[in-house]
């Protein structure tokens, strides 16, 4: 069943308005850091969804996605910088759309041309925050009701990483969406890569590009 929810600010961002360019008891046992992710078919990880075919890379200083990692792009997906709108009111709206749970969005990868949604990359405002703490703050920082949090430690390309999945409920519409995010530390920054089902995308639209990106993470300038 297709789930269709995001809070208003997330929906606005999903439409490209700003695109300028847990419960541990329910979590599966975690592998040692640096180990492969366990394979879980169906809820909540959907590991049976394979990575997309690569077509180019993103990341690095001077790129549309200025973060200290590089990652492969799915075919038809394009990296764009996030540029808040101008003006007094626009600055307030931009703050709401570009800040979440102690993180600031750095860029998004737009997959609408390929029939997908968005992959967004956020940087924690506190450089020393751990990947798990960054994920927890991010998940609860969007004004949604959060439930069903699960975590796992795994290897993401060149990095030890923590991955989280959760259900978010829009407090106004009372609709649910599943979200996935993975966090790594590189060059003194904690980065969060996130995708979700929503108004324009189902899991099969976003998970292939997300899996490709996080499994191909590499250090960059």
> What does the radius of gyration come to?
16 Å
- Flag low-confidence runs: 1-34
Q: Tell me the structural class.
A: alpha+beta
| Main pleated-sheet profile | 8 strands, antiparallel
Query: How many strands in all?
Result: 11
Mean pLDDT: 83
Cα shape: globular
Tally of helical segments? 4
Quote the beta fraction: 25-35%
Order of helices and strands: HEEEHEEEHEEEEHE
- What proportion of the residues is helical, as a percent range? 10-25%
What does this structure look like?
The protein is an alpha+beta fold and 221 residues long. It contains 4 helices and 11 strands, in the order αβββαβββαββββαβ. Strands 3, 4, 5, 6, 7, 8, 9 and 10 form an 8-stranded antiparallel sheet that branches. A 3-stranded antiparallel sheet has the order 1-2-11. The longest helix is centred in the C-terminal third of the chain and has 13 residues.
Summarize the structure in short.
19% of the residues lie in helices and 34% in strands. It has 221 residues and is of the alpha+beta class.
Write a concise keyword list for the protein shown above.
3-stranded antiparallel sheet; 34% strand; alpha+beta; 19% helix; 221 residues; disordered N terminus
Topology readout:
Elements: H1 8-14, E1 54-58, E2 69-74, E3 78-81, H2 88-98, E4 99-100, E5 103-110, E6 118-124, H3 131-140, E7 145-156, E8 159-169, E9 176-186, E10 189-196, H4 203-215, E11 218-219
Antiparallel strand pairs: 1-2, 2-11, 3-5, 4-5, 5-6, 6-10, 7-8, 8-9, 9-10
């Amino acid at each position: 069943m297709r789930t269709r929810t995001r809070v208003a600010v997330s929906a606005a961002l999903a439409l490209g308005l700003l695109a300028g360019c847990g419960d541990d008891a329910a979590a599966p046992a975690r592998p040692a850091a640096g180990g492969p992710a366990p394979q879980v078919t169906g809820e909540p990880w959907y590991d049976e969804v394979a990575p997309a075919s690569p077509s180019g890379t993103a990341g690095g200083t001077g790129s549309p996605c200025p973060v200290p990692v590089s990652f492969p792009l799915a075919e038809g997906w394009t990296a764009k910088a996030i540029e808040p709108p101008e003006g007094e009111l626009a600055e307030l709206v931009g703050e709401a759309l570009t800040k979440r749970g102690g993180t600031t969005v750095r860029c998004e990868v737009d997959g609408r041309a390929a029939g997908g949604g968005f992959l967004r990359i956020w940087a924690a405002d506190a450089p020393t925050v751990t990947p798990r703490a960054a994920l927890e703050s991010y998940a609860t920082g969007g004004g949604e009701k959060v439930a069903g949090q699960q975590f796992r430690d795994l290897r993401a390309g060149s990095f030890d990483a923590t991955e989280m999945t959760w259900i978010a409920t829009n407090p106004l519409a009372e609709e649910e969406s599943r979200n996935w995010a993975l966090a790594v530390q590189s060059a003194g920054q904690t980065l969060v890569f996130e995708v979700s089902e929503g108004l324009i995308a189902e899991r099969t639209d976003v998970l292939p590009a997300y899996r490709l990106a996080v499994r191909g993470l590499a250090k960059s300038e």
